[in-house]
Design a protein that fits this description.
Chain A is built from 11 helices and 23 strands. By secondary structure, chain A is α+β, with helices and mostly antiparallel strands. Chain A has a 9-stranded mixed beta sheet, with no helix packed on it. A 5-stranded antiparallel beta sheet of chain A has the order 2-1-5-4-3. Chain A has a 4-stranded antiparallel beta sheet with strand order 14-15-20-17, with no helix packed on it. Chain B has 39 helices and 5 strands. The longest helix of chain B is centred in the last third of the chain and has 22 residues. The chains are: A alpha+beta, B mainly alpha.
Chain lengths: 459, 739
Amino acid sequence: MIGGLFIYNHKGEVLISRVYRDDIGSQAADSAVFSSSGPFLGERLGGSVRNAVDAFRVNVIHARQQVRSPVTNIARTSFFHVKRSNIWLAAVTKQNVNAAMVFEFLYKMCDVMAAYFGKISEENIKNNFVLIYELLDEILDFGYPQNSETGALKTFITQQGIKSQHQTKEEQSQITSQVTGQIGWRREGIKYRRNELFLDVLESVNLLMSPQGQVLSAHVSGRVVMKSYLSGMPECKFGMNDKIVIEKQGKGTADETSKSGKQSIAIDDCTFHQCVRLSKFDSERSISFIPPDGEFELMRYRTTKDIILPFRVIPLVREVGRTKLEVKVVIKSNFKPSLLAQKIEVRIPTPLNTSGVQVICMKGKAKYKASENAIVWKIKRMAGMKESQISAEIELLPTNDKKKWARPPISMNFEVPFAPSGLKVRYLKVFEPKLNYSDHDVIKWVRYIGRSGIYETRC
Amino acid sequence: MPYLGSEDVVKELKKALCNPHIQADRLRYRNVIQRVIRYMTQGLDMSGVFMEMVKASATVDIVQKKLVYLYMCTYAPLKPDLALLAINTLCKDCSDPNPMVRGLALRSMCSLRMPGVQEYIQQPILNGLRDKASYVRRVAVLGCAKMHNLHGDSEVDGALVNELYSLLRDQDPIVVVNCLRSLEEILKLEGGVVINKPIAHHLLNRMSKLDQWGQAEVLNFLLRYQPRSEEELFDILNLLDSFLKSSSPGVVMGATKLFLILAKKFPHVQTDVLVRVKGPLLAACSSESRELCFVALCHVRQILHSLPGHFSSHYKKFFCSYSEPHYIKLQKVEVLCELVNDENVQQVLEELRGYCTDVSADFAQAAIFAIGGIARTYTDQCVQILTELLGLRQEHITTVVVQTFRDLVWLCPQCTEAVCQALPGCEENIQDSEGKQALIWLLGVHGERIPNAPYVLEDFVENVKSETFPAVKMELLTALLRLFLSRPAECQDMLGRLLYYCIEEEKDMAVRDRGLFYYRLLLVGIDEVKRILCSPKSDPTLGLLEDPAERPVNSWASDFNTLVPVYGKAHWATISKCQGAERCGPELPKTSSFAASGPLIPEDNKEREQELPDSGALMLVPNRQLTADYFEKTWLSLKVAHQQVLPWRGEFHPDTLQMALQVVNIQTIAMSRAGTRPWKAYLSAQDDTGCLFLTELLLEPENSEMQISVKQNEARTETLNSFISVLETVIGTIEEIKS
């Protein structure tokens, strides 16, 4: 259970503070303290709540060292914090709670807020603070998480907020049926003129490569996000090139196995949105569900085998004497020539005592950024099976610092229009027995986006 | 400057809130209220406008209502009289046709933390429990817990509890979960909500309908259910199987814990479960949600304690990336250190060696300590790497390497030779206290094998005046004396100088004492010095440094998915210990001698805590919990050793007594509820010699006195008397509090 929730900006100022339980600072017991004295620090509202709030600022936000743990114990109170850009969200409790759950709740809180007003930034939080209080009131009661589905929340907490008076009786009953309904994620009676759905396969590919070009570790974590605008209570069935399914089917038609066997992928583990019937997945490995209305994350998965690494980075660093470094980096794109990668950025770290850098690159733009201690090389677009190169001469100041330069890895960012795991959507069928539209009438869109996660090559 | 000039701000806001023009314009009115809340958030005392805010609650604008209710919940304890005015509006809202308004009003009303509100909220809560909208029922159910919390000492309302138990069958999943939470809080003193077979099976069947928070909560409650038969147990496990693959890591961990606890008699099932959650756990360890990743890593370490080989084939998953946050890197290094085996040791060491030169000194040091840990099994390879690191001549690396060496020669004496060869030269690169101590210790103990040991120590002796750390000076004294025994000719002169300095000039008491001690020891004769300094190693820290043996899964299963793996067992023990002390602290007045000593004693002096001023020679051992059965058997087999009657008037809270007894290490075995007559309690305690004291407290219905009977399993009058005096003091103190 969560005793209180605070949101701070990077300076440690409290933007939002909501206390659910007395135990994180007994206000009632403190009332004597502040009725007796003037408007000064100690006797401001709820002395000990303030203390807890201040303690977090001093011990975590303003701490000199790096944060040693996302869970901090100050005066026997646990602070769970999550940072989003320069905003700190902290959940506070005195109980021996279940840490994973508290963090999940904080993530959920971030998701809900993002669904309402976009990026979580100081400005947005200040502008929407009433809304945030409303949300906090609704998704936590007495420190216990309640309904936190964005879809449900959006029906009765609106940005404008005044909606509730203009509601008709019918609308009102609809809201209560959704807020309190059996299937928490979808209400009855949804209608669309055009039945449409969008599937996004979003993957982030992570790589750690040794200087010799050996893959130390690589994995893809992916999400299938669905946006559905479907009428009624449609039953959906989703199919992909999961190795186990393909092999199972292949038993019947032998030649198909040989054809599609190569294209199937082995999924290490996957998890699904609440709406997916897990029992069916376990027995038949088929993914069937009644989707929530609007956007939601259908599944999340991870693969580690046969990953298509979209780029290879080949670094060459040569130390010429004590005051000069020569760096040459080649990147090779490794996918179909017809596809285009975008937003490519290569970050080549430079030593702290760099005095000057000369860069020559074949493609794109490269710049030495002294404040970041790195050469940043940006390429807008690059087709598959191409190669590009950058070479740089780094002048160093002679120092008497004996510390050897640790050579941080070269990191890369990019976006490619395919799934590096090799995942393919085979079908998404929609059945709605009660209404008169069939699978063929639904307009479906599928998109694949592969992004770089932590994509590092040591040099 | 939000904190200053609050009076002006309050005055201005008050004016604005009273202004009829503003009141007429809904948006402007709400804006002013928003400003009040904003200042409240910043920490300004806004209680001055309470009256005006109460008036603002009478509105149709639901957002404005919410803001005002938030304000009232914050300040109600300060202005209880004014808050009562608002109750009227709230009560009216509780019968609004819109369920959202009903729910909001009820929730806010229950959250007003002030005395006397109970009588007003009782009826609305009861109505709310039977409301047709589940939104209101959810609020009402938690309202019961809030109401109970306001008056912690009040009797548990049996009818309400029954009503809540029946609501466990409600069709709304959140109502069901809230019922469990509420019952748990109301029945806390009686051990929480009871999960019997029908309830357990009902919950299991509803699991898939719940959201992730509900699932996690129910999994936690199911922990206390004991299946009757093996068959039932496996049925339950089958039902829960799908939750091991849930998309929420919290649910996965909750399900894992439940599996581990339920299957505590079936080690193969436990191992099987741990194999099956390997995938989800590894996924969490490499997820982009860093905080979750951290928590997962902590649990991986926990599992590795029992199954060292469990993640060995996945060791590459735990290699650190440059851009990961510090706390994840530190955890990963620990994990790497624990999963090392013959096959991967080469790669892991290679990887760790890379971290040792990291820019972050903290991380580099953690990596070096990890290599030191691995060195206990793979000594030669590690010592070689550590020796190479010394060659870098970096301060922060050298100091940690030397500390690692110190621990290593202790645990693996076979590497002493290699360490001794590596040491010369590193004194130039050590500046901090810990590192210096380690180096000096090594030079002292193994000085005969290091040719230049006396000269290094001589440097330290020369600079002892400018040495800032007393601990280093102490270490230097001991080391030099040790070296003097093996190489007297080279050391005699400087030992004299050091002793002179320490005794004559040193300001630090501890150092001077140690100097004097050694001086006097030397006066007794060299044989005596040898006997004392070179006595067999019996350092208690040795136990800490040794590898803990593989722990069975059951030893940590109950800690899984709590904060214990996150903080570490030792840290958590100190945290929760203080919490206990704090809880009973305020209940006892500071005048009584032993109560004051409870919370004030620092955590590390566990031994001394028992030596309470009034207990004399008696030392009661903490946490000697007897089972009720054993107690009963012993109680019946013994004769009463002492009987006494103490004056006792009126009512009291048994909990207070239990807490107070806990402070002096007397355990409560059983106790009647408050208010029952005759009231009885059975207590037990044990002293350090193993002598048991069993006690019965009895309050007869009409007498105004408490009868105490004590039984003892070894007849010793002096300890019995001191035990009784402890007991008297505790009961006397409780008596004082009451009156």
